[in-house]
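Data card: per-record layout.
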Amino acid sequence: MKRRDALKAIGVSMVASGFLFHRCGNEKTDRVISRINLELKEGRELWERERLEELNSFTFFDQHEKETLTELVDLVIPADEDSPAASGVGVPDFIEFIVKDQPELQQPMRDGLKWIDDYSQQQFRGAFTGITADQRTQVLDRIAYPEPESSELQSGIAFFALLRELTASGYFTTKAGIEYLGYVGNRPNVWEGVPTDVLRQYHLTHLIT
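The structure for this 209-residue chain is written out next.
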């Protein structure tokens, strides 16, 4: 199965269940679904506006971490002929928002990004963003599809699981992601009036226009 197809399956299951990023409680899920536009819109309660202003007042990832994150999410969901890559729809910014909103995720994400750099340095003598595209794919494949005997990669494997979940949640809550899934949700039926044969049965054909 292609990586995009696997992520599509994850996205379908999340949308179908109405449940995005399972670490979010109901209240936090509502904030996630509102996306990270962070524009104050009418209809938000005061606490929502204050919370968004607070989260928008600082950044968590430094420039190098953000560049590494961008490379990673685009490896998880690359562009294809029909859809943009994850970074093209703002997934790195989505993840930035989530880790600020949920501080318990900050250390795992920061440690994971450092692990990626350390492993890349060990294997290819360069930080993740400084090695070749093929080498980056090799690093990611080793933690995305680990061998049974890969205990030395456990930290990277755990990080990738979190990264993949965040990336899929971010991507499949965008217009491009939903279009890629082909998910249209519930749509109202078109009512065309009482069928003609029923009107005839009850001698109401004069109602036919």
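Known properties of this structure: The chain has a mean pLDDT of 82. Residues 106-124 form the longest helix (19 residues).

See the next section for split statistics.
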